[in-house]
Design goal:
Elements (H helix, E strand, L loop, with lengths): L25 E7 L8 H12 L4 E5 L3 E7 L5 H10 L1
Antiparallel strand pairs: 1-3, 2-3
Amino acid sequence: MGYAPLGDLDPTLPRPAAPIPLPASTIRMGVDVECAHLANPLVAATRLLAREAGALARIDGDENHFEVTVAIGDHASAALDHVEAWI
């Protein structure tokens, strides 16, 4: 089996100067991790919110404390309670 010669990798495309802004309606909550049953609680929380809850979420922090920001479409109390329950 032959191998093709490797060439130089294309450089990464330039990125915009500013990040994408957060949506106008979000809820942000801090999470303190007391005990983690998985290797990385940030990855676990990201997968849970994205896959199971279908949330547009941003998670930032470390294995001891992180902040979860979730885009919301409704400021009604029931909608906020629903987001809080997932977090």
